[in-house]
Amino acid sequence: MEQLNKFVERIETTLLKGVRLESENPYDPVVVKHTPTGWSCIGAGNYAAVFAYQGNEEWVVKIYAREQEGLKKEAKVYRKLGGHPAYSELIYQGEQYLVLKRLRGITLYEAVHKGIQIHESIIHDVNEALQYARERGLTPCDIHGKNVMMNEGKGYVVDISDFYKPGEDEKWNDLVKAYYKFYKPFFYKYSIPIPDFVLDAIRHSYRFYRKWRKKRKQVQLYKG
Fold first, then answer.
1. SS3 for 105?
2. Cβ pair 140, 168 in contact under 8 A
3. Where does this protein hold ATP (predicted)?
């Protein structure tokens, strides 16, 4: 408890007072303009950014840049999940941040970018973790290549902030289909690095495809 109290004090006195975050577009990751000495940003999503302190290897701090109500909902999701090897754990809840157990590894996005093999066990681990969340009354949403991490053949879900929303999206299912249809037969064996600009083009194309698919379904329902 003393270690946690000291860590929380350090967050309040150094990180929160010195960090500068901007959310320029709700569909793009939060932009970190300044990080205080001793801290490093290890990830950013559409709502928040995650920071680690050089003297602490156990925990990370997730600071919300917008939609503060989402912080409270995310904390509730973690409490519902309880302990599961494929998820982080809630250590402490502050006014605008969460202290979480640190997960090690690289994201699937990074693995594809660097040409590192993504073993099929990663897919199985995440599928099992998402089913576990459903059994706890949650709805897994926004699961994509930047929200899934792998380490030593194990898969981890690193962002559960949208698990409270009603209805699941198709992002993970689409990623799994792409894994078996394109990645496994063409990229897995040779581990070819994919440039960032290609991955960004794929991401934007997929976003356009989702909008087109949604409109198509609405038209089909209207025609009935």
1. coil
2. yes
3. 62
Calculate the CA 39 to chain-centre distance.
20
Q: Which residues of 78-92 are buried (b: 16+ CB within 10 A; e: fewer)?
A: beebeeeebbbbbbb
Give the pLDDT confidence of 119-157 residue by residue, as tens digits: 999 999 999 999 999 999 999 998 999 899 999 999 999
**What CATH number is given for 2-101 in this structure?**
3.30.200
Q: How far apart are CA 38 and CA 57, in angstroms?
A: 13
Question: Could you give the residue range(s) of every CATH 3.30.200 domain in the chain?
Answer: 2-101
CA pair distance 114, 105, nearest whole angstrom: 13
Strand partners, 157: 87, 148
Those residues with Cβ within 8 angstroms of residue 35's Cβ, 6 or more apart along the chain or in another chain: 18, 19, 41, 51
* 6 annotated to bind ligand: no
Q: φ and ψ at 96, to 5 degrees?
A: -130, 15
Contact by Cβ (8 Å): 87, 81: yes
pLDDT in tens, 29-87: 889 999 999 999 998 888 899 999 998 989 999 999 877 788 999 999 999 999 899 99
CB neighbour class for 25 (10 Å; exposed up to 12, middle 13-18, buried from 19): exposed
In the chain, CATH 1.10.510.10 sits at 106-193
Architecture label for domain 106-193: Orthogonal Bundle (1.10)
Hey, what's the torsion of the CAs at 164, 102, 203, 133, to 10 degrees?
-30
